[in-house]
User: Which sequence fits this backbone?
């Protein structure tokens, strides 16, 4: 089981969305009022995030796109398909410094999700993403009652690989031409973390 600092999950005012509070961060879905902060995060970190991201829609850096995207995120959460959260630091609560998503939630015989994340360039090497992943995985295991959290990273992304292994994720495979990154099919290292204390949802 992954271990880490104490954190709390508080119900949000919107559709029982989680608000995960850690020592230095609040993780939650974005509200319409967060759109300026989202645009600032993605604009300021465009070059930093590009090497590990797919090609972006032409309107990605517009308020119109993010209004629609925020609505889609709310719909996916309500349907139990994903939990797409953003990182708000306690020292600057109006600022987005990263994102963390539990995507492609599958139930039935699987009970797993895919983990994805990013962090602002000027917030690297502070342990913030480790803190966020620990809290999100606990939420996935204890609140969503998932059995496995999966992740994938580029073989060249050694920092992400070290983070995931340090938090207990185990390398489970190597997928060739797995994701379309920057317009080119690229390989990914596949890792996973299993919930040894899994119990079926009520």
Assistant:
């Amino acid at each position: 089981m992954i271990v880490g600092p104490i954190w709390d999950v508080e119900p949000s005012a919107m559709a029982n969305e989680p608000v995960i509070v850690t020592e230095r961060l609040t993780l939650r879905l974005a509200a319409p009022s967060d759109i300026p902060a989202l645009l600032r995060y993605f604009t300021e970190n465009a070059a930093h995030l590009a090497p590990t991201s797919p090609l972006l829609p032409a309107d990605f850096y517009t308020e119109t796109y993010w209004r629609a995207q925020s609505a889609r995120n709310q719909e996916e959460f309500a349907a139990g398909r994903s939990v797409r959260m953003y990182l708000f630091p306690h020292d600057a609560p109006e600022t987005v410094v990263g994102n963390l998503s539990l995507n492609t939630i599958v139930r039935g015989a699987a009970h797993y999700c895919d983990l994805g994340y990013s962090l602002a360039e000027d917030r690297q090497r502070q342990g913030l993403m480790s803190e966020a992943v620990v809290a999100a995985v606990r939420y996935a295991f204890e609140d969503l009652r998932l059995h496995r959290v999966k992740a994938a990273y580029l073989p060249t992304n050694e920092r992400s690989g070290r983070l995931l292994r340090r938090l207990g994720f185990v390398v489970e495979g190597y997928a060739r031409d797995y994701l379309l990154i920057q317009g080119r099919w690229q390989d990914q290292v596949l890792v996973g973390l299993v919930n040894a204390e899994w119990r079926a949802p009520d």
Summary: The two ends are 21 Å apart (CA to CA). Helices lie at 35-44, 46-49, 63-78, 128-143, 158-166. The longest strand covers residues 170-181. Residues 1-7, 9-15 have pLDDT under 50 and may be disordered.
